[in-house]
Design goal:
The complex is a heterodimer.
Chain A lengths: L5 H18 L5 H24 L10 E9 L4 E7 L1 H20 L11 H20 L3 H10 L1 H11 L4 H34 L6 H6 L4 H18 L8 H8 L2 H26 L1 H27 L4 H21 L3 H31 L12 H4 L1 H14 L6 H16 L1 H26 L15 H19 L2 H18 L23
Antiparallel strand pairs in A: 1-2
Chain B lengths: L3 E2 L7 H18 L7 H24 L8 E11 L2 E9 L1 H24 L6 H20 L3 H19 L6 H32 L4 H7 L5 H18 L7 H5 L5 H10 L4 H8 L1 H5 L2 H24 L3 H21 L5 H28 L17 H15 L5 H16 L1 H26 L16 H24 L2 H9 L10 H25 L11 H7 L4 H40 L1 H5 L3 H27 L1
Parallel strand pairs in B: 1-2
Antiparallel strand pairs in B: 2-3
Helix pairs in contact in B: 1-2, 1-4, 2-3, 2-4, 3-4, 3-10, 3-15, 3-19, 4-5, 5-6, 5-10, 6-8, 8-11, 8-13, 10-15, 11-14, 13-14, 13-18, 13-22, 14-15, 14-17, 14-18, 15-16, 15-17, 15-19, 15-20, 16-17, 16-18, 16-19, 17-18, 17-19, 17-21, 18-21
The chains are: A mainly alpha, B mainly alpha.
Chain lengths: 519, 629
């Protein structure tokens, strides 16, 4: 078995990078950016190398597991390890960071904070994101979960738009409130583990094995879920997101919505479901209702937004509804679909926000739809990338987002036919608001203010090419994702103690029940 | 049905899709550099696919009937638990005829576009989109399961979106493109749910699995699947109540209207239902719903086609109506499937010819589409005129032109079902005679009503040669398919074929139909060729006025869907800002005057943040200590 501490290496690389970036001379912004980019690429390379060593069908729950004693008196360990779900999310995070650095090359300007500071913060955030997905000790997870707020707070509050302070504080307070609830539950969980095993622990695997009283589960579940529902965010805990996205730099928003918010849905699937299986099934109807409301509420509100970034925020809220729906319908199709959806949404969000950032940089920072119009005429390459990201956002069949969305809807339909059917109607709404953005910004007569707008340069294209390529390649050939996600989902289904609904009239030669589809 | 693996020449079937897809990729990624040679590449890829298609046809004709379903599996595409879908193609008699229609008519339209789009600054993009369309359409008809079909289904939708909006600096074109996509999304809801229901019921979405065990399922389930597929088909094929996008789609360049919005994509709904024949054969209510939708659309299209002065919109109305005929035929079940496909093929050829003919006319008339400004064009564009007349005689169904054979079979099948359906089909044939005669009379006969700066001329050979080929097809394809190709026997293994007795001999129905067609044509001739056509449209009766407004399709959509959506969206925006966010900010203000502090500078926050952290840490420690005790 692998003994090389892959995860620690990967988590530390960006942190080392950020320290170096901070130590670089202040006046040479380009050097700082280049170093940041180099470190993010090395990190990505390390993640790819690690992924190649990942064994999809391993018997172990967590691979590349490491554990170091941290606070022995409270049973807290510094433990890392990944299953297939955590692996793809780490891969997503480390893919998006270089994209964001390259795409947001000119986002930070000296008048607000130091340029190198912005890029150092991105790298710090990357370290923490890797940590939060890799943690297999619940306390460690909590520490990363809270610590992530700090770089993001500064990224919004320092480098954002005119209302950045308001947005940053709103984000912070929301998150802190959620975090406090989680902390309370965390302590409760420790107490319960102490009662059951005699020694309290925060070790995830041990906690999963505990047979916690269902009534206590229902109480503890709420703390975790509340924190995750704010993070994701689900309706009605979402109002911090449009403000944050509307003020943050597009690059910040990519990491915030594309990765950070996924910690919420990741937390639901990893912590809520596995540690509190009885509570999860108990609360499922409520969560499904919230998810359904979110799908439509976000879609409707997105229809009327005039600022692209706020629009994408509401659209994300709608998408998070789909993800939560897939998680809480308890079918393997739905859960696997949710994880694919997380990856796909990260990619679409990156494409949309980065393209929006390019647009903004050409129109003095305005993201108002009315500032644009007919851009396709002057900047067809920009319009082309924007369209690919937009189509990905509406889950066009052939793109990876379709696989995620269809699986989520199918998973819901399998379990509760009407829930699946209602959620499916949401795809019309998605098309309506997504195509409205494209129509208003890219088509029609050229807005005179956009006269002479330059098309994308090499750097800008380079940032978006991997996004567009992944959206399409993974849509045509999703096996690399499914191969690693499916075993984790199968194990999860077993842990929670649920199985897929039976087929009514199985066709001949169709496998009977829940055996992993991967070879 | 035995499914054979793809061997020999058949192992090349993936190339049919791959070639135009590669063409699209090259044309779209190389940008303006390929403007000079790109269009030729676009023609080449589709023509190569057509050649492969013909070779495959010859190969397939050499096989015994029961070995003509050939499957090529690329890899396992989507899988988890017991859900598994392959990326796999299926070639059988039904997909074969579609492949030929798509690639051959597609090639002709690509060639025509060389002339039609010669002066467009973005022409390689146009050919790139056209190639993308052909690839997606081939995927649609070659998929061996519903989920992969969905990819082709939406792929043609995107190509259609891009091509309707090709001249997207026009607001109307951009709006029409969006409208087409969104209405089709409503149909997609049907397709999505049908696929889900199939999986829940049969555990598979592969054609052979679903059809193999369809009879086990309850009729209720099959009816639901059938109705959901009908919703999808109605969207793609512009059938009532999802018809409103097709007329607006005429904003696209005319070759697009010919290829996508007449010959191929809009017939995908007919393909879907014919492909799913096993479902409908066991779901009477769903089949009846298909018939009802078809009859409504036949008349809507015909009435709209009779009132429009825009030649493309008149043709679009006609397309709705003719696809209505095909839908009627598939709704009739085994007595109609083969004729639906037969009419689909002949219509694909003659309607493409008519649209390209209309394009040729527009080309000579400074892109004017108003037939009231045409007239007497027969002498200045002779080839366009003659080929258009071949299409005209084909669509109204005069023997021995193509449309006669196929439409006549549908009408006969309708009479096998009953007098009402048969009578309706005959009546609509009469209206077809009227509106097509009106179109021909206004365009090619009568007096010149040209704009002063119009100098009509025949189009270049690159445009007229495709017209001639399609004109020949309009004339002979029907006979060729029926007598030489034996289309009934060819398709029967896939879609089934039965015949029921009718009270009157076949010749009687032919006679009745022809009588109606001729009466309709004479009325059209008297009204529009013998009399002066006013340049300003007369007010017309209530039906004409309604038809000019597409029978209020947009008004209905607005009242039922668009307006409520806008209302709900505005209400929720208010709710979100005032109630949800208001509650959050309000409670923040109450708790600690935070909202005031929120607007202060950062130092205040760091302090409060630090405070919270300390608070949290104290809480942790306290708790841990308590637990210890």
């Amino acid at each position: 078995m692998n003994t090389y501490p892959w995860l620690t290496t990967i988590a530390l690389l960006p942190l080392v990078g950020s320290v170096i970036v901070v130590l670089l001379p202040k006046h040479n912004a380009k050097l700082a950016k280049s170093v940041a980019l180099a470190f993010s690429l090395v990190t990505l390379g390390a993640v790819i190398a690690m992924s190649l060593n990942f064994e999809a069908n391993s018997e172990e729950v967590f691979q590349f597991a490491e554990s170091y004693t941290w606070i022995p008196s409270f049973g807290i360990n510094f433990s890392f390890g990944v299953d297939g779900i955590a692996l793809v999310l780490i891969a997503l995070a480390t893919t998006l960071v270089p994209v964001v650095i390259l795409g947001g090359w000119n986002e930070a300007i000296d008048s607000q904070g130091s340029v190198k500071g912005y890029f150092a913060l991105i790298l710090v955030l990357e370290s923490l994101m890797i940590g939060v997905f890799a943690a297999t000790d619940v306390f460690l997870f909590y520490v990363f979960f809270e610590a992530m707020l700090i770089p993001v707070y500064f990224m919004i509050g320092r480098y954002g738009g005119p209302q950045r302070s308001y947005a940053a504080v709103k984000f912070l307070i929301y998150s802190l409130v959620g975090g406090l609830f989680m902390l309370a539950s965390l302590i409760g969980l420790y107490v319960v583990s102490a009662q059951i095993t005699g020694t309290g622990t925060f070790d995830f695997t041990t906690l999963v094995g505990l047979d916690i009283d269902p009534d206590i589960q229902k109480l503890l579940f709420l703390g975790f879920f509340f924190a995750f529902a704010i993070k994701a965010p689900l309706w009605p805990f979402h109002t911090w997101l449009p403000d944050a996205a509307g003020q943050a730099q597009p690059g910040t928003s990519v990491l915030l919505i594309g990765v950070l918010d996924k910690v919420g849905t990741f937390g639901m699937i990893r912590y809520c479901l596995e540690i509190f299986p009885a509570a999860s099934t108990f609360y499922a109807p409520v969560v499904i209702a919230i998810a359904l409301i979110g799908i439509f509420y976000g879609g409707f509100v997105a229809l009327k937004q005039t600022d692209m970034r706020r629009l994408f925020a509401y659209s994300s809220m709608s998408h998070f509804g789909f993800i939560a729906l897939g998680i809480f319908v308890f079918t393997s199709v739905g859960q696997s679909g949710s994880v694919i959806y997380m990856v796909a949404h990260g990619l679409s969000t990156a494409g949309l926000f980065i393209a929006a950032g390019y647009l903004m940089s050409r129109r003095g920072g305005s993201a108002q739809l009315s500032s644009f119009g007919g851009v396709n005429k002057v900047a067809p390459v920009l319009a082309g990338f924007f369209l690919i990201a937009a189509l990905s956002s509406l889950a066009l069949p052939g793109m990876v987002s379709f696989i995620g969305e269809f699986m989520v809807l199918l998973g819901a339909f399998q379990q509760y036919m009407w829930v699946g059917a209602i959620a499916t109607v949401g795809i019309v709404l998605t098309a309506a608001y997504v195509l409205r953005v494209y129509q208003k910004s890219m088509t029609g007569p050229l807005n005179p203010e956009c006269e002479g707008m330059k098309d994308l340069n090499g750097r800008e294209i380079t940032a978006l090419v991997p996004i567009a390529a992944l959206i399409i390649v993974l849509g045509v050939f999703p096996a690399p994702l499914l191969n690693v996600i499916n075993p984790a989902v199968d194990r999860l289904m077993t842990t929670v103690g649920v199985s897929d609904p039976e087929v009514t009239f199985p066709a001949l030669n169709v496998p009977a029940s829940n055996e992993g589809g991967s070879e | 049905m035995t499914v054979m693996p793809a061997e020999g020449l058949f192992s090349l079937m993936w190339l049919l899709i791959a070639l135009p897809l590669a063409g699209a990729a090259i044309l779209l990624f190389t940008g303006r550099r390929s403007n000079a040679w790109g269009p030729y590449l676009g023609v080449l890829t589709v023509s190569a696919s057509a050649v492969i298609g013909v070779l495959l046809l010859i190969e397939m004709m050499g096989l015994p009937t029961e070995e003509r379903t050939i499957t090529q599996v690329a890899y396992q595409w989507v899988f988890i638990g017991n859900f598994s879908v392959d990326l796999a193609f299926q070639l059988d008699q039904l997909s074969m005829v579609f492949i030929l229609l798509i690639t051959i008519v597609g090639s002709l339209i690509h060639i025509y576009s060389l002339g039609y789009m010669a002066h467009d600054p973005d022409k390689r993009k146009f050919f790139g989109y056209l190639n993308l369309f052909v690839a997606a359409m081939l995927l649609l008809v070659m998929a061996n399961n519903y989920l992969l079909l969905y990819v082709g289904w939406e792929g043609v939708g995107v190509a259609s979106y891009l091509l309707i909006g090709f001249w997207q600096q026009k607001r109307s074109a951009a709006a029409a493109a969006k409208k087409a996509f969104i209405i089709n999304r409503v149909g997609d809801v049907g397709l999505s749910l049908a696929i889900m229901l199939m999986f829940v019921t049969f555990g598979s979405v592969t054609f052979s699995d679903v059809f193999g065990s369809a009879t086990q399922a309850s009729e209720g389930t099959l009816t639901a699947i059938g109705l959901l597929l009908l919703l999808a088909a109605a969207g793609k094929s512009a059938q009532f109540p999802l018809q409103a996008w097709l007329l607006d789609a005429m904003e696209g360049p005319t070759p697009v209207s010919a290829l996508i919005h007449a010959a191929t994509m809009v017939t995908a709904g007919v393909y879907l239902i014919a492909r799913s024949n096993v479902i409908y054969n066991n779901a009477e209510i769903a089949a009846m719903a298909v018939i009802i939708v078809a009859l409504i659309t036949i008349f809507m299209g015909a009435i709209i086609g009779s009132a429009k002065d825009d030649i493309k919109k008149a043709l679009a109305g006609s397309t709705m109506s003719q696809i209505g005929y095909m839908m009627l035929a598939v709704g009739l079940g085994p007595i109609g499937y083969v004729f639906a496909i037969f009419h689909l093929l002949t219509h694909g050829v003659f309607k493409a010819g008519l649209f390209l003919g209309a394009g040729s006319v527009m080309h000579g008339m400074n892109d004017n589409v108003n037939m009231r400004r045409y007239g007497a064009l027969r002498s200045v564009m002779v080839i366009t005129f003659i080929t258009f007349m071949a299409g005209y005689l084909a669509i109204i169904g005069i023997p021995p032109f193509s449309g006669f054979w196929s439409k006549d079979e549908i009408i006969h099948a309708a009479f096998e079902r009953g007098w009402f359906i048969g009578g309706a089909a005959v009546l609509a044939a009469g209206i077809t005679g009227f509106y097509m005669t009106r179109m021909v009379a206004m365009t090619f006969f009568g007096k010149k009503r040209w704009e002063t700066d119009a100098h009509p001329h025949e189009s270049p050979a690159v445009m007229t040669i495709p017209l001639i080929i399609l004109g020949l097809g309009s004339t002979f394809l029907g006979m060729a398919l029926l007598f030489w190709g034996d289309i009934e026997a060819w398709l029967e293994p896939v879609v089934g074929y039965e015949s029921e007795p009718t009270p009157l001999p076949t010749s009687a129905y032919i006679g009745i139909t022809l009588a109606f067609v001729i009466v309709g044509s004479i009325i059209g001739w008297i009204t529009y060729a013998r009399r002066e056509v006013p340049i300003e449209a007369p007010q017309g009766n209530w039906l004409t006025r309604a038809a000019r407004k597409d029978l209020y399709g947009d008004a209905v959509n607005h009242a039922l869907v668009v307006a409520p959506t806008n209302y709900a969206a505005r209400a929720l925006v208010w709710f979100d800002a005032r109630i949800v966010d208001g509650f959050v900010n309000g409670s923040a203000a109450i708790v600690g005057g935070l909202s005031g502090r929120m607007r202060r500078t950062q130092s205040g926050f760091i302090r409060s943040y630090a405070l919270s952290m300390v608070g949290g840490a104290v809480l942790v420690l306290l708790a841990l200590v308590l637990v210890r005790i």
